[in-house]
Amino acid sequence: MKLGINLLCLAGHIDESHLPQIERIAEIGYDHVEIPVMRGDPDHYAWLGERLAGFGLGRAQTSIVPDPDANPLSEDASVRQRGLDHLSWIQDCAEALGSETIGGPFHAPIGHFTGAGPTKAEIERDVAAHHTMAERAGRNGYRLALEHLNRFETYFLNTMEQARAYADAVDHPAFGIMYDTFHANIEEQDQPRAIEHLGPRLGVLHLSENDRGVVGRGQIDFAAVCKAVKATGFDGHVVIEAFGAGLPELAAATRVWRPLFPDFETLFTESHDFVRATWEAA
Fold first, then answer.
1. What pLDDT digit, counting tens, does each position of 165-219 carry?
2. DSSP-assigned states of every residue in 138-183
3. How many domains does the chain have?
């Protein structure tokens, strides 16, 4: 298991001002960090990748589809092309960063709804786009891990039944699913059973508390989650996710308006120690 932390707890865009906190993350004993890639250019992420490597940290990435006007699901060819261009930009940045994984909901704009579930045509369009992404990822030595979200953030991919079927449709060894305990806590009746159903399609494990605060302080049974994940044979990237107070890029969709942890040192150390111990015990 490679333990990381999602840096959305710090900011929506990581720059030089965040390096002291990232160095502290390395000192605590994390194996990697998951970088939010929402804006910027490949040159910035090449620079950041070098700095992270200097701290001895591996790199992972999380990205989204930020705008309905660049939606890869759209039936409008010009809108869809802008969406495909955005997916290509995501991979440009990942390759510059030296990322081992691209995770996140890069399937549809967060907080955008049509009033119904996904149509067959929308699924087919996204499957084609993600298969193309997976082919490029496979050639360049990294993996995709598409994230399901709860029904209040997207209509496209909510449950592990949907996620497994979608990954089977993409059908590429470089494509999997990012399982997130926060979203599954809303959508699944039984998290271990959901993880078992996802099985070999599990690409990245996001450990996020029910309030998106310090992992281990809330209601989610992480011992059962880790036991179920290990039973699948998964031994890859495990990422702690907690959100800071008011991320401009995501606040409208995630409704994060208040501090969810007392300070970064508590978040980094307590979550690290809890997950290491819980994983080992499982």
1. 999 999 999 999 999 999 999 999 999 999 999 999 999 999 999 999 999 999 9
2. HHHT-EEEEEP--TTT-SS--SHHHHHHHHHHH--TTEEEEEEHHH
3. 1
User: If you average pLDDT over residues 6-19, what whole number do you get?
Assistant: 94
Q: Tell me how far apart the alpha carbons of residues 185 and 94 are, in angstroms, rounded to a whole number.
A: 29
Strands (DSSP E) contained in the chain are 2-6, 32-36, 58-62, 101-104, 143-147, 175-180, 202-207, 237-240
Cβ neighbours of residue 190 under 8 Å, at least 6 residues apart? none
Range of the domain at 171: 2-281
The Cα-based distances of 77 to 50, 84, 89, 116 in angstroms read 38, 10, 18, 21
Does the pLDDT of residue 148 top 90, yes or no?
yes
Per-residue pLDDT tens digits for 76-93: 999 999 999 999 999 999
CATH at 257: 3.20.20.150
74: which 2 tokens?
Answer: 């759209």
Q: What confidence tens digit (pLDDT) does each residue in 218-264 have?
A: 999 999 999 999 999 999 999 999 987 656 666 666 777 777 889 99
* Angstrom distance (rounded) from CA 263 to CA 275: 18
